[in-house]
Write a structure and sequence with these properties.
Layout lengths: L1 H4 L2 H35 L6 E5 L13 E7 L2 E12 L5 E5 H6 L40 H8 L3 H27 L2 E8 L5 H9 L15 E6 L8 E5 L13 E4 L4 H6 L7 E6 L16 E6 L5 H11 L4 E9 L6 H13 L3 E6 L7 H15 L1 H5 L1 H4 E3 L9 H107 L21 H45 L20 E2 L5 E2 L6 E2 L3 E2 L9 H4 L9 H8 L14 H17 L5 H16 L3 H41 L12 H69 L7
Parallel strand pairs: 5-10, 5-11, 6-9, 11-12, 12-13
Antiparallel strand pairs: 1-2, 2-3, 3-4, 6-10, 7-8, 7-9, 14-15, 16-17
Helix pairs in contact: 2-5, 2-13, 2-20, 5-13, 8-9, 13-14, 13-19, 13-20, 14-19, 14-20, 17-18, 17-19
The protein binds guanosine-5'-triphosphate.
């Protein structure tokens, strides 16, 4: 109550200052809330904390300055962290993780050093005051139902609830602002009948407005407002229905002249309603009561109390807008019974009673009167009695401001109104603001702990993932190079091996031996001259089959080379892939190499390679022995004249020999050809005719006539002997040589450039080998790439989390600084 005794100017200044600070605090808090909501939406999913006092800690450690609590979150109530909660005398809250608090480190969330008080374990202390989410949470583990309910609430849903709650607080701040900015204040003047209430009101207004009479004359409640509220027009509004009164709606009242107040009051109509008086208080702001620049006081002159009116007036006084009740008693009567009843009710309901003992000028023994009245007050309202100097005034309203004590009363009343206003309007605002700031501090404190935990977690994730990623980055090139080498080497080796196997096979065939040593291919035995043609065909077939086997052997070698290559690829995988990456489960099946594919209906699909191979072997998928054109024996399989010619007359280069010979030799071939054709079973009429024509051609030649007969005879005889004796051994050689030459000589029979047999197979085998190795290395490269992408993602994710958490932690620290600033600016520190 000291405030009321301070000089009016000082009270007014304090009030205005406090109001100004509070308005600033409200604005700053609103913008802070808006920022938090934005941050919650864009950058950080705000977690809603719950605190539970650690009841098992009996005495707080001297090292700790706060109270140990368990911190959990609404979206994850089961995991609790140890924290220390401190509340300073300014009600500001600090939350620190237990380890931080033990280290006593002054971090971004400092407590008000020295000023903080250690809270006794008290579960109430840690609850939110304003930002309350009704999540119906039980204590962790207290009820299965609560646990189940909570587990269904996702972080985001809870963050949305927090957001809504902050939104509601922002709206409430607007209401509070309106309340703080509202300067209107109502002072109800009531008291006993004829106690001089109207005289008192007139004295306050410095105008004889209210009718004064020795008889009771105030029949209705008269509210006196500043005329600025009525467009600077002095008049009376006779209001019947007070609840519906609207100054802008003339149908809700009747206008009357201020000078006719007596007659208006006498009119019975008004007694059931209220009179609104709009007056011009022309005094300067500092002196005016109605409009003093700080509060717009509305005076209400109530009818005198009697038994009937007691209840009505008490009810009226209970209205929220009534800030102060001035109770006027006549010094002559002291406190009447009805006065006592009213004061008893009013002092219980509201503690802002102001008692004016009027007509004090009429009292002779003033001291006795004062003593007796104060005694009565002491009994009725001890609190009023305690502050009697400010609240109880003995005055002469008739004298008005000529009376010193009236001036004192007026000053006290103004201070009292301001003081009460501060109490009724400003204090609830500052309490709300302080609680809201505490809640914000709790919210950001808890979220800062979450951010700190995220920073630690992200750092440890990075410690693991970064070195792995770096290693992978460096080994990527090495791995790719190594795989390239494996591919190249495999293909190269397979090609070389094929070339050497087939070269050896062709070599052997040229000697009349099977292309492959130790194979199942057996050379046919000579069946006799009569079956010579069959023999030739069988030899050809056996040699071709053995060549096919040589190709198979080369493929076999390539399989081994490929298997080694695949194993090298696997070994490279082991060397370069991180340990936790799944290895390829594919098993290499060498037998699948060089296989023909099957069509949908199960038939073998012959692969047609695009190469044209020497000897007319179009496509390498079919074995030589299976080719009809290769199996067809010819005359030259019996007697390879071109070969012999080149051996004896040529430049000894077998590769360059062709099917054509000089005309002299063609004679022998013709003769022998005829014989063999006749001896064989496949002599065709066409072949016979061709032979005869050739003979005729040769013999018709002029030069031939001279030497033809003897030479021809000698040759026929020699050849016949040779035929009989040498054929069994010469046929395989001849046939083999011919096959070899066919496969080793590039021709242009198809019109395209032909590849040599061995080269074509070498290229094919190398291609197949490379294909398999490329598949294996592609698989490894792909795994490596995926693993590296995953690591990169992990690293990026951890880095983002870390940055986000660091930013959030700094931001929360900033919020904490802002709340401290708001407390200071809004004067909350002073208003305990
Ligand atoms: N001597 C003296 N007379 C006063 C004083 N105050 C009021 N009166 C006289 O007391 C009589 C009643 O005054 P009002 O102001 O009408 O009293 P009231 O309480 O408004 O009366 P109702 O509202 O009708 O109950 C008048 O004749 C006033 O002149 C005062 O302080 N001293």
């Amino acid at each position: 109550m000291e405030e009321a005794s301070r000089p009016l100017r000082s009270v007014q200044e304090t009030y205005v200052e406090q109001k100004h600070h509070l308005l600033g605090g409200l604005s700053a808090t609103k913008s802070l809330l808006s920022d938090i909501r934005l941050f919650n939406k864009d950058s950080w999913t705000t977690r809603y904390p719950r605190l539970r006092v650690k009841s098992d800690v009996v005495e707080p450690s001297p090292k700790r300055r706060g109270v140990p609590h368990y911190l959990s979150f609404a979206d994850d109530p089961s995991s609790e962290t140890d924290v220390i909660l401190e509340r300073s005398f300014t009600r500001s809250l600090s939350l620190a993780s237990n380890s931080d608090a033990q280290e006593d480190a002054v971090d971004e969330f400092p407590s008000d050093s020295g000023a903080s008080t250690c809270l006794r374990p008290d579960s109430e202390s840690s609850e939110f005051q304003v930002v309350r989410l009704d999540l119906n949470l039980g204590a962790p583990g207290s009820s299965a139902r609560a646990g189940a309910l909570v587990s269904q609430l996702e972080k985001v849903s809870i963050a949305n609830l927090v957001d809504e709650c902050l939104g509601v607080s922002m709206q409430h701040i607007d209401k509070l602002r309106a309340r703080v900015e509202d300067t209107s204040s109502k002072v109800l003047v009531t008291g006993d009948l004829n106690a001089g209430k109207s005289t008192f009101v007139n004295a306050l207004l410095r105008r004889a407005i209210m009718p004064v009479d020795q008889q009771p004359c105030t029949t209705t409640f008269c509210e006196v407002h500043d005329f600025s509220e009525n467009g600077n027009v002095e008049e009376v509004h006779v209001v019947k229905d007070v609840a519906n009164y609207n100054i802008d709606d003339e149908s809700t009242y009747k206008r009357a002249s201020i000078n006719n107040l007596d007659s208006v009051m006498d009119d019975g109509e008004s007694s059931r309603g209220m009179l609104k008086l709009y007056l011009n208080d022309s005094r300067p702001l500092s002196e005016s009561l109605l409009n003093n620049g700080v509060v717009d006081i509305t005076l209400i002159d109530a009818p005198g109390l009697n038994r009937d009116r007691l209840k009505t007036t008490a009810l009226f006084a209970r209205q929220e807008e009534i800030d102060v009740i001035v109770f006027v008693v006549s010094a002559e009567n002291h406190l009447t019974e009805s006065a006592q009843s009213f004061l008893r009710i009013a002092s219980n309901e509201k503690a802002y009673l102001f008692i004016v003992v009027n007509k004090f000028d009429q009292i002779k023994n003033k001291e006795k009167c004062r003593r007796m009245v104060l005694e009565q007050i002491r009994e009725l309202s001890p609190r009023t009695y305690e502050d009697a100097n400010d609240l109880v005034h003995f005055v002469d309203s008739l004298a008005g401001n000529d009376d010193r004590s009236f001036e004192d009363l007026e000053g006290s009343l103004r201070s009292f109104v301001l003081f009460k206003r501060a109490k009724s309007k400003l204090n609830p605002v500052s309490t709300y603001l302080s609680n809201l700031l505490s809640d914000i501090e709790l919210l950001v404190g808890a979220n800062a702990i979450v951010a700190q935990e995220e920073i630690v977690r992200a750092k440890s994730d990075l410690d693991v993932a970064l070195p792995v990623l770096d290693r992978m980055k460096t080994s990527r090139g090495v791995l790719e190079d190594a795989l390239e080498v494996v591919e190249e080497q495999g293909a190269h080796e397979a090609s070389n091996k094929t070339l050497s196997v087939l070269a050896e096979a062709l070599d052997r065939i040229g000697q009349g031996l099977p292309g492959v040593e130790f194979s199942s291919v057996r050379m046919p035995s000579y069946p006799g001259l009569l079956y010579l043609w069959d023999y030739v065909r069988d030899v050809r077939s056996a040699l071709l089959t053995s060549l096919d086997l040589a190709v198979k052997r080369a493929e076999e070698e390539a399989r081994i080379i490929t298997t080694v290559g695949v194993q090298q690829v696997l070994a490279l995988g082991e060397e370069h892939l991180p340990a936790d990456v799944e290895r390829s489960r594919r098993v290499f099946m060498p037998e699948a190499m060089f296989s023909t594919r099957r069509t949908r209906d199960g038939k073998r699909k012959i692969r047609r390679d695009s190469l044209v191979v020497a000897g007319g072997t179009l496509g390498l998928g079919i074995g030589l022995a299976a080719r009809p054109e290769m199996n067809q024996p010819t005359f030259f399989d019996l007697f390879d004249i071109p070969h012999h010619f080149w051996v004896y007359f040529g430049d000894n280069k077998e590769n360059s020999e062709g099917e054509k010979g000089p005309s002299a030799l063609s004679i022998m071939s013709v003769g022998i050809g005829v014989v063999t054709m006749i001896g064989g079973q496949v002599v065709s009429a066409r072949a016979f005719v061709e032979g005869a024509v050739r003979i005729a051609d040769v013999l018709s030649h002029e030069a031939t006539h001279k030497w033809a007969a003897p030479v021809f005879g000698a040759f026929i005889m020699g050849a016949t002997a040779y035929f009989v004796l040498e054929l069994p051994s010469s046929v395989p050689r001849t046939v083999g040589r011919r096959i070899r030459n066919t496969l080793s000589t590039p021709g242009t029979s198809t019109g395209l450039r032909e590849e040599l047999f061995a080269n074509a197979h070498a290229a094919r085998v190398a291609r197949e080998t490379r294909k398999v190795l490329r598949l294996a290395s592609w698989d490894l490269k792909e795994r490596f790439r995926v693993a590296m992408d995953e690591r990169s993602r992990e690293v990026r994710g951890a880095e983002e989390t870390e940055h986000r958490a660091i930013r959030a932690k700094e931001w929360f620290a900033g919020v904490r600084r802002r709340t401290a600033d708001i407390r200071e600016q809004a004067g909350l520190v002073l208003m305990s």
